[in-house]
Design goal:
The chain contains eleven helices and six strands. It is α/β, with parallel strands linked by helices. The protein has a six-stranded parallel β-sheet with strand order 3-2-1-4-5-6, sandwiched between helices.
């Protein structure tokens, strides 16, 4: 049975994906690069170590990767104060804990950003653990962050909850089922095609499903089987 629920943070628990897209847009523009915003948005959920090449090409990553990431940090610092949690975020965390599962908040964001976002819904008071970019060698859609999250609480079988196709793909790589939310701007069909077992509108709807026993009905895979 699933013993650990791993919740993505950006775009899943807090409404930040479009702030990330705008911060990246401004960072690229600072260096006279102008990829369309929709393409940047579609890459949100990847770590910054992969996003630059995915959006602007390998040459941009080789020439400007670190400088772009530094500029993105500056731009997102200006926007993070506008980020708000989604309705039902706190209820979702409480529902997971009330069902007796370990709860890990899995972010690949910078530590200072993660701490700021978790304070928006007092996530530290309920989570058994959380992650930042410093905790994984490779960001999503690689499985590294999910494996770290599971190990933090000594879990044997996890469930990933996220808003992007990258979350579902990372879960598949980790041998975990996943649930998708529409809060990040990806469609239900895209999330299902990427491997999500179910898709919900947002945290409030998922909280009710969790309270009704959704997690216990999903298939799980033991970490020892990976």
């Amino acid at each position: 049975m699933t013993d650990t629920v791993i919740l993505d943070v950006d775009g899943t628990l807090v409404d930040s994906n479009y702030h990330h897209a705008l911060a990246w847009t401004r960072a690229f523009a600072h260096f006279e690069l102008f990829p369309p915003v929709w393409r940047i948005h579609r890459a949100v959920g990847m770590g910054g170590d992969k996003l630059v090449a995915h959006v602007a090409g390998a040459e941009a990553e080789q020439r400007l990767g670190d400088a772009l990431r530094d500029r993105w940090t500056q731009e997102f610092d200006r926007l993070i104060g506008e980020v708000r949690p989604f309705d039902g975020t706190r209820a979702l965390l409480e529902a997971v804990k009330n069902r007796g599962h370990h709860l890990v908040l899995a972010s690949s964001g910078q530590q200072q950003h993660v701490e700021t976002l978790l304070r928006l819904f007092d996530g530290q008071s309920l989570a058994d653990a959380w992650t930042t970019a410093d905790d994984a060698d490779e960001s999503k859609p690689a499985a590294d962050l999910l494996q770290v999250a599971l190990s933090r609480v000594g879990g044997s079988a996890g469930l990933m909850v996220g808003d992007a196709t990258w979350d579902a793909q990372a879960a598949q790589s980790a041998g975990m089922p996943s649930v998708g939310l529409l809060t990040g701007g990806f469609s239900e069909a895209e999330l299902l095609d990427a491997g999500a077992a179910h898709v919900f509108e947002g945290p409030a709807q998922l909280a009710q499903a969790v309270a009704d026993g959704l997690i216990e009905r999903l298939p799980s895979q033991s970490a020892q089987d990976l």
